[in-house]
Automatic annotation (TrEMBL):
HAMAP family: OMPdecase_type1_B. Gene3D superfamilies: Aldolase class I. It is an enzyme of class 4 (lyase). GO terms for cellular component: cytosol. Pathway: Pyrimidine metabolism; UMP biosynthesis via de novo pathway; UMP from orotate: step 2/2. This is Orotidine 5'-phosphate decarboxylase. The lineage of its organism: Bacteria, Pseudomonadati, Pseudomonadota, Alphaproteobacteria, Hyphomicrobiales. The gene is pyrF. Catalyzes the decarboxylation of orotidine 5'-monophosphate (OMP) to uridine 5'-monophosphate (UMP). InterPro entries: Aldolase_TIM, OMPdecase, OMPdecase_AS, OMPdecase_bac, OMPdeCOase_dom, RibuloseP-bd_barrel. PROSITE patterns: OMPDECASE (PS00156). It comes from Pyruvatibacter mobilis. Coiled coil: none annotated. Belongs to the OMP decarboxylase family. Type 1 subfamily.
Amino acid sequence: MTDARTISRNPVFCALDTPSPDKAARMARQVGDAVGGLKLGLEFFMAAGPEGFRTVAKEGRPLFLDLKLHDIPNTVAGAVRSLLPLKPAILNVHAQGGMAMMQAARDAANEAPEGERPLMIAVTMLTSLDQADLERQGNRVAPADYVRRLAEQAAEAGLDGVVCSAHEIETLRMELGPDFKLIVPGIRPAGADIGDQKRVMTPAEARDLGADILVIGRPITAADDPAAAARAIADDLGC
Ligand SMILES: O=C(O)c1cc(=O)[nH]c(=O)n1[C@@H]1O[C@H](COP(=O)(O)O)[C@@H](O)[C@H]1O
């Protein structure tokens, strides 16, 4: 068992996308050490809020609070400050919020007491989007270039890493170095249902390319036996 702030060598963070703290805590116990951490996102936080977060935090696992903050710098900084008492291991903002916003988020996170500062991560291009979606937005750039530009800004703003798809790992790792965290959703074991994701890869492929954290939700949580599904992924990764 890892403690609540240490990211273990198991790179899998299980996305507990449910509105129910009891269900999330139960799922956390079911998957146990077959995952390295847990992610709570918008569905959870909108319904259960800080109190729900504290319920899951009692499980003692590293928690990624995925709220994808996206607003003007002052508002995002305030939101980060409001979240610090929860002591999440990881927090995220949208890189599309711009450099000043990311810097404000970083500065707010730096106000955390010693040892409680969350990793500050920028979401680049959602894994549910592809080239056609960018074009529809009037954005005539390839996803790889778009993600690279956003990640460069995140690094320049002093954030700790980005959320990207597995398809961008190699380029970002080469360009931004070994310490820049690459958090990768859109992970699907071979043959699994892709659902609404578009830029996907298998857990082992993404890990081998250099992902630090693999965010995996439905392939575990929607499985008939979530514990077995998480264990199969961990075994595949040699964890
Ligand atoms: O920031 C995220 O975690 C995130 C970014 C992104 O680009 N794509 C993405 O899927 N996510 C989250 O990762 C999880 C993926 O869940 P599954 O598609 O069920 O594995 C969800 O909770 C998403 O909110």
